[in-house]
Amino acid sequence: MRIGVVRSHDVKKMVFSYFNGSYFIFGDTSKQGALLPNEFISVRPTSDNKVELSLGVSVVGRFDSIQLRQTGKNYGLRLTSMNPKLKEKKYLDDFVVKARSGTLTIINLVQIQHYLSGVVESEGGGGKHLEYYKAQATISRTYAMDRLDRHRREGFQLCDQVHCQAYHNMQRYTPLIDTAVNATHNVVMKNDEGHLVDGFFHANCGGETTWSDYVWNKRIDYLKPVVDSFCVYTRQANYTKRILKSDWRNYIVGKLGYPENDSVYGDLLYTFTQFYRKKYFHHPDFKIKLTKIRHKFKLKSTFFSCYEDGDYVVVEGRGYGHGVGLCQEGAMKMANLGYNYQQILRFYFSDIHFEGEFEELFFMQQPEFRINELD
């Protein structure tokens, strides 16, 4: 897979250094040397969108692209951005570096199992149950396979940000994640029509997931809302935020056109209640989607109620994230209670089935599907 990494910043100088195993260094198609223990290279963009390569402190040349190719298997490198100064990261497998509009495009050519292990750890953290990791690996694999053309114009398939899936490092802390990725090898989720499922997930639904069109524009049948009692007592189930009434009014009335002078709804400008998830603030006719309010005031979710308190509007919310699809903290709780990964995924996704290597193995073990052993 081709994954664009360190996409959160415009990188103008990157240092690649030894982590484990050696790498060949190529400038375009010509070998420029090898990256060995205690050695490093640095790259930076030039004004004409070339990449300047330095081995140690010596400039070697300028190229259309730099490739770093491992000399064996499962090797890794340290990446340290020097401009801007960022925390070191480690990644497995190979790299391509190009320049575009005065910044570096850094592409990790990574085996899918290494990518998924990094995603599962970045998205779910360490210390979780194996069945949760299997569920996250399956949903992340499905999500990735369904979006392989998302960044084609930029020369890679997926990025490392939540726009695609968080992929911040090689998997480091929890060996169980590798076990989960390998145990679900090639398994993906499909709907009744045989298409890959939109594998949406979020941190915490606050007790109820939501329709996809409450957040985006399209309603997806297999993403029906579910009442989720598994996540309601977890870490991110509730939040509170205080917002100045003047800021609230200026946005809700001034920008979104709420009818402040309406005889019925005028008095409800600062008061709103959600016992179950809604799409709009007070009334659909106002066309004020709760997603707009969430983004403006940086709320953790759209599942909130609010009331006046002096000069403030107090927002009391439930959950963290968009609320569509799998609730990660709910899934973690289900795994701890003994549910397997398929049961977890079927709880959050309606009318889906699984396809992948486990199905092939199943059919091979059935007498009617076996190849004649005498042939």
Tags for this entry?
375 residues; alpha+beta; single chain; seven-stranded mixed beta sheet; six-stranded antiparallel beta sheet; disordered C terminus; Tumour Suppressor Smad4
Describe what this molecule looks like in 3D.
The protein contains 8 helices and 20 strands. By secondary structure, it is α+β, with helices and mostly antiparallel strands. Among the domains are: 1-110, Tumour Suppressor Smad4 (Sandwich), CATH 2.60.200; 238-318, no CATH class. The strands form 5 sheets. A 7-stranded mixed beta sheet has the order 4-3-8-11-12-1-13, with no helix packed on it. A 6-stranded antiparallel beta sheet has the order 7-6-5-2-9-10, with no helix packed on it. A 3-stranded antiparallel beta sheet has the order 16-18-17. Helix 1 crosses helix 2. The protein is globular. Mean pLDDT is 92; it is low at 358-375.
